[in-house]
Design goal:
With 63 residues, this protein is α+β, with helices and mostly antiparallel strands. Helix content is 40%, strand content 25%. The chain has one domain: 2-Layer Sandwich (Macrophage Migration Inhibitory Factor), CATH 3.30.429.10.
């Protein structure tokens, strides 16, 4: 069974529902099978770094 894993910032439940539905429809069309698993991993800005600094710090203007 195909597994789609999405890592990103937190989303509200309605947006997660839409993402799972849309990603599943696309993958089912490509693979031609009806069983797709979608995993959403939410990462808080203080747990993600880019270019040597935390995303949370960039949002605060501490760069």
């Amino acid at each position: 069974m195909p597994v789609i894993q999405i890592d990103g910032p937190p989303l509200d439940t309605d947006k997660k529902r839409k993402m799972v539905k849309d990603m599943t429809e696309v993958a089912e069309g490509i693979y031609g099978i009806p069983h797709i698993v979608v995993l959403i991993r939410e990462n808080e800005p203080e747990n993600v770094g880019s270019n040597g600094e935390l995303i949370a710090d960039r949002r605060k203007g501490n760069s």
